Amino acid sequence: MQLTLPQSQSDRLNGVLLLLFGLIYGPLLWHWCDGWLTKSISTEHEYFSHGLIGLPFAALLIWERRRAWERLPDRLGLGRWLGLGLLGLGAAFYLSQVQDFVNLSLPLVLTGTILWLKGQAGFRMLGFPQLLVWLATPTQMPYLVAPYTEWLQQFIAGTAGILLAIVGVPVVVEGSYLYINDRIVEVAPYCAGLKMLFTTIYVTLLLLQWSGLWRAPAQRWTLLASAIGISVVANILRNTFLTFFHGTGNEQAFVWLHDSWGGDLYSALMLGSVLLLMRGIERYWPPGGLRTNADRDDETDPDDIEFTET
Amino acid sequence: MTIDSPADLAAGSGRFPWAHSLVGLLLLGLLATSLPGYLQGGRWSWQRPPGTAQLGTLRKLRETGIVVPGWQTQGQATFKLGNNKWSKQLLERPSQADPKAEPESAVLFLRAQHDNKTQPEVEWADFRGLNRWTEDEARSVTIRPGVTARLVRGWTRDRTHALLQWYAWPQGGSPTPIDWFVQDRQAQLRGDRVPWIAVSIVLPMEPLGDLAKVEAEAKALGGVVQEAIEAKLAAKAEAQPKDPVRPSPAAR
Fold first, then answer.
1. ipTM of the predicted assembly exceeds 0.85
2. Which of A9, A24, A45 would best serve as a mutation to test chain B binding (most B beta carbons within 10 A)?
3. CA torsion angle for B35, B40, B42, B43 (degrees, to 10)?
């Protein structure tokens, strides 16, 4: 009754699937990465540029868990039929050849395949890498939420206005507009810092997984909440600087921070501070059970050892 | 290996060699779809959305405005708001109630889509920023079945206006970008697009008066404008049948 395939045959099957997946989605992945690197992708899709680190990391995590994956039982359950459904949906999305749907078909086919091959157990084992792929898939979400971020724009404009007033710069705030020396600065929807916020959360997820803090709820939520706070404050300060530069006629500095590498440097400094904070937590507030680096990925480590033995 | 349930027994608790094959077959099917792209050396159809047939009409409309039946255009200008061009035109007609009285007037603002990629987004917030007024009493009104708009009162210390706003497209309209988005993506599945024009109509009203008093007038004018836009977009589509070729690089 047992139809266990020899290891090598199973490897071959997985290899073929991987090859097909690569042939189908390789051009799409290339289009994303090229677009993120050269900023030739649409403004909405640029929001997902953290995929440049997230997607390779997800691939690495899946690769590391491949032996444990092989040993998962092949049970026929609800999850597998759900997987088949997702596969069908992903295929339909791909066949539509409409960009938004084709993009979504990648994570759909991935999750569908995982569920179909190994059911819920497989889904859970590869849960984190799947999350990384889903959150890096360019969608129209930034476009769809833009009309609803006005409160955030107004909050940023208001706070930047107060900061400028404190340092003695004459400024008038009206809604999401700042008027300074007869010049106008608008905190536009795409300046509301959602991209930075989204990237910060994504990078924090990566850091949590990498450090093993992911398994310590108190530390995990503290770091996530702090990262969100840092991102919001950093964005308010950024908008304050931009208003100050524009209002005082310092266009060079404005362009540097707004469009040039100044903005990237600013983001890097901000993400660096999240990293420092995480190091601080690891050092001065280690998780109770000491379940950090040493024994991260409970499921995979024993397998890795076994793999090196065979 | 333990058997937990009859389902496991039925499934044999073993491997399904055909599970991989099924995914493989499905992926092969998808690969067949991407073959033309490979044969053309990396020209993928998902990279190029269908073209908007009425793009020429839309671009011209920003410079000329639109003819509104029953109303006379007293002046038209094009101005920039943020990065976008808007057309502003002053409309007038003799008073319906008393021909000797002051003529009725309205100001029609249009922001038409200017390339294949622009999507309606935050036009109403931009417009509020332009006027530097306070908006309140917002409500949703139905211009005609399938075409809804937002009606608001915009006021400053010395003037009050009624404002009617919606995104107009052929056979429909809504003040919410998401409604257009759904229509457009459905059209893309058919290889088509939904062109759009953001419409703002400004009507005079009593200082901090009751919006309900101008609602009927606003809806009537809104209906005429929607029809004029639809006629204009339809006429162009007939005069120049939709190009089967995907849009030029310049439109991307």
1. no
2. A24
3. -100
pLDDT band at A309 (very low <50, low <70, confident <90, very high): very low
Please name the residue of chain A whose CA is at the shortest distance from the CA of residue B34.
A24
Residue range A7-17, pLDDT digits in tens: 677 778 888 89
| CA count, 13 A, side-chain hemisphere, A22 | 7
Q: Which two tokens stand for residue B164?
A: 């009617």
pTM: 0.83
How many C-beta atoms surround the C-beta of residue A91 within 10 A? 19
- 137-196 of B, contacting A, C-beta below 8 A: 176-178, 181, 185, 188-189
Among candidates B114, B196, B252, B43, which has minimal Cα distance to A97? B43
> Using one digit for the tens of pLDDT, what is the confidence trace for A238-293?
989 998 888 888 888 888 888 788 888 898 999 999 999 999 998 888 887 544 44
Q: Which residues contact B97 (CB under 8 A, 6 or more apart)?
A: none
- Residue A197, min C-alpha distance to chain B (Å): 21
Q: Identify the DSSP state of B190.
A: T
Residue B9 near chain A (CB below 8 Å): no
Q: Which residues of A touch B46 (CB under 8 A)?
A: 28, 97-99, 102
| CA proximity to A198, closest of A54, A37, A99, A42 | A54
Contacts of A23 in chain B (CB under 8 A): 31, 34
Residue B245 pLDDT > 60, yes or no? no
pLDDT tens digits for range A134-153: 999 999 999 999 888 888 88
Closest residue, chain A, to B119 (C-alpha): A143
